[in-house]
Amino acid sequence: MTVTLEVTVSGGAGRVFAPMGMVTPHHSPVDFALVGAEATLAAEAATGQWVAVAEGAAGPVTFRTRFAEGGPGYPEALFTHRPNRFTTAAEALGAAAEGIKAAAGGGAAGLAAIVTHVADQFSYGHPEERFYDGHDEIPALCGLTEGSCVDINTYLVAALRAAGYEAGYVTGYFFPAEKRGTCEDMHCWVVTRHEGAVQEWDIAHHLKMGRSDIGPGQNPRPGLRVPLAHSMGHDLPALGISELKILSQPMRQAPDGGLDWAEVDIRLTNWPG
């Protein structure tokens, strides 16, 4: 299957960059192409992930990654905690997570209890101001809070890591079954590893479907998700970028260094089965 991202570019847009895909137990990128501009690569300093960079594009640019089914597993870097303002729990959140873990008896039960607790803190939405804006750490929530998949998973990963669990944050695209190959924007989910058992969690999709029975699994809603990148707080020295929250959809970088999301058409071809 192939993910195609066609970016609209008008005039001198500076750079456009995007991640090229990552390996998981479900999919592996096998080749990549960039059409419509001169291409270079830039590496993320801590995780070793690469982004493709379109330089000086004057028209549409297409990022295209082909995936094979199956893969060796999630990269070890996914589970490595690199402290920054998007990944570090404030003291109150850490204490709350430890308390939930202990009350559940620790182990896998403690992990699941933290996931359930986090789900209870959120209603799904896209607020203009996020609960962690302006904070150097992820604060503890005191009541029901509106949040997107990005916001919910930021809180979940910080809480899990504060309680001593291995957890990571994956970004990519979710293609609903009924659309058979199109979607509107990026999606993200959380991966945990406890005593060798790897599980995926998607609180946001459960909440969007009105479901409170939060459990592990990639697709409470029928469809297909494709991973592009992982982790938060990225440094891309070749582009002069530090602490970029996520790598997901293509981004524009203006000549003055300013960043914004690119206008993109997202498509999946060769739907499996």
Largest sheet: 5 strands, antiparallel
* Sequence of secondary-structure elements: EEEEEEHHEEHEEEEHEEEEEE
Rounded to the nearest angstrom, the distance between the terminal CA atoms is: 10 Å
Write down the Rg: 18 Å
CATH class of the largest domain: Alpha Beta
Structural class, from helix and strand content?
Answer: alpha+beta
Strand content: 35-45%
Strand order of the largest sheet: 3-6-1-18-10
The gross shape turns out to be globular
**CATH architecture term of the largest domain:** Roll
Task: Please mark out the parts with pLDDT under 50 across 5 or more consecutive residues, or reply none.
Answer: none
SSE blueprint:
Blueprint: E1 2-7, E2 15-19, E3 27-35, E4 38-43, E5 50-55, E6 61-69, H1 91-103, H2 107-120, E7 122-124, E8 145-147, H3 149-162, E9 166-176, E10 182-183, E11 186-194, E12 197-201, H4 203-208, E13 223-230, E14 234-236, E15 241-244, E16 251-253, E17 259-261, E18 264-269
Parallel strand pairs: 7-8
Antiparallel strand pairs: 1-6, 1-18, 2-5, 2-16, 3-6, 4-5, 9-11, 9-13, 10-18, 11-12, 14-15, 16-17
Helix pairs in contact: 1-2, 1-3, 2-3
Pfam family, one: Transglut_core
Domain Transglutaminase-like: 98-190
Organism: Rhodovulum iodosum
What does this structure look like?
- A hairpin with a 4-residue loop joins β14 and β15 (241-244).
- This protein is 17% helix and 37% strand.
- The protein has helices spanning 91-103, 107-120, 149-162, 203-208, and strands at residues 2-7, 15-19, 27-35, 38-43, 50-55, 61-69, 122-124, 145-147, 166-176, 182-183, 186-194, 197-201, 223-230, 234-236, 241-244, 251-253, 259-261, 264-269.
- The protein has 273 residues and is an alpha+beta fold.
- The protein has a 5-stranded antiparallel sheet with strand order 3-6-1-18-10, with no helix packed on it.
- It has 2 domains: 2-75 and 235-269; 78-227, C8orf32 fold (Roll), CATH 3.10.620.
- The termini are close together.
- The protein is built from 4 helices and 18 strands.
